[in-house]
Amino acid sequence: MVLDITSLINGKAPKIDFEYEIDAQGEDTDILPPSDVSFTAPVRVKGIVTDNAGYMALSLTAEIDYISRCARCLEDISGTFTLKFNRKVATKGTLQDEDNDEYVIVKNGFLDIDRELVDDLLLEFPAKLLCKEECKGLCSKCGKNLNFGECDCPKKKEIDPRLAILQKLLENDETM
Ligand SMILES: [Zn+2]
Ligand SMILES: [Zn+2]
């Protein structure tokens, strides 16, 4: 969205609220999900531009719904990713370095929010999605989903503690 913040710059409004959506599905969307992820709804954006004695700031929250697969157990998952996005706002020509990531630049009273927001959204989107934090994943031998219970594959044998002591003594003997 390109937001007209002329009234803020002129001092006629102390803040400007905004709320809009960015298409995340159409053919010409810039919002390309990571592999194995699909975005299922537009990005919902809600925020505010404020002016504090000439220091302007942009603060917004963006939400996007997704479907994907758990990186460990491969089960289908869905969720909403939320990004908090905060930038200082400067009018064009007032900064020495306009590529500074802390700023978004206003041109002729218009603030272009989307470009950097979309970059950030894709950058911050989790590289690994899990069905739950403690997902047990799949058995590396039989492929069973261990969240639904143990499989029958042989587990590492526990050594009898009494034998372990004996074994240690034997090892010590060898080094003497
Ligand atoms: Zn999982
Ligand atoms: Zn198994």
Report on the architecture of this protein.
- It is a single chain.
- This protein has 176 residues and is α+β, with helices and mostly antiparallel strands.
- The protein has two domains: 2-124; 146-175, no CATH class.
- 17% of the residues lie in helices and 35% in strands.
- It contains three helices and eight strands; from the N terminus they run βαβββββββαα.
- Strands 1, 2, 3, 4, 5, 6, 7 and 8 form an eight-stranded mixed β-sheet that branches.
- The mean pLDDT is 89.
Features:
176 residues; 8-stranded mixed beta sheet; alpha+beta; elongated; binds zinc ion
**Rg (C-alpha, Å):** 27 Å
Category by helix and strand content: alpha+beta
Please count the beta strands (DSSP E, at least 2 residues each).
8
Average pLDDT taken over every residue: 89
How much helix is in the residues? 10-25%
CA distance, first residue to last residue: 78 Å
Shape: elongated
* Spans of at least 5 consecutive residues with low confidence: none
Give the names of the bound compounds.
zinc ion
Number of domains: 2
Number of helices: 3
The profile of the biggest β sheet is: 8 strands, mixed
- N-to-C SSE string, H for helix and E for strand: EHEEEEEEEHH
* Percent of residues in β-strands: 35-45%
